Input
Amino acid sequence: SNLRHALSLARRQARWDDAMGILYGLRTLLVTQGRWVEWERLISDVQSEVTDARGEPLAGRESLWRALLGLRTEIAYNRRDFDAQEKILRRLQDHHERAGDDRNVAAVLHQLGMIAQERRQFDQAERWYRQSLAIAERVGDEQGQAAALHQLGNVAYLRRQFDEAERWYRQSLAI
Output
C-alpha cells in the first residue's frame, strides 16, 4: 500500500521519473507474488496517463512510456505470447530508430532474436543477433557485443554445431 500511495503522489505531481522507479518496485513485489492480473491492470492505468489516443507518448513522459512497453514485453513473455511481445518490440524499435538511439535498437534486435530462438526459428534468430552485434560493435557497447556473441553460440549449440558454438562463446568470453 505504501508503494501504491507513493505512485499516486508521483502521478498527481507529474513526477514521471519517480513514478517509473516506484513501478519497478511494485513490479518486483507483484510479480514475485504471482499477481500478474493486478500488475497488468496497474500498468494499463498508468499507461492511460502517459499516452495520447493513438498510444503515443505525451511530451515529457517518453521515458515512462518506453519503460511501460518494456514491462508489457515481460508480461507477454510470461504468457508465452510471442506475437504480442514481437509487436511491442517492433514499436520500440521504430521509436528508437527515429530517435537515433542505436544502443537501444541493438537491445531490441537482441530481444527479437530471443523470440525467434524460443520459436526455434534459428535462421531468423541468427539474423537478429548478427544485426544487434553489428550495431553494438559500431557504438562500442561491449556488454551488447558479448551478449549477442553468447546468443549466437546458443543458436549454434541448438543446431548441434558445437565447434561453431564454442567459437562464439570464446569470442563472448574474450570481451
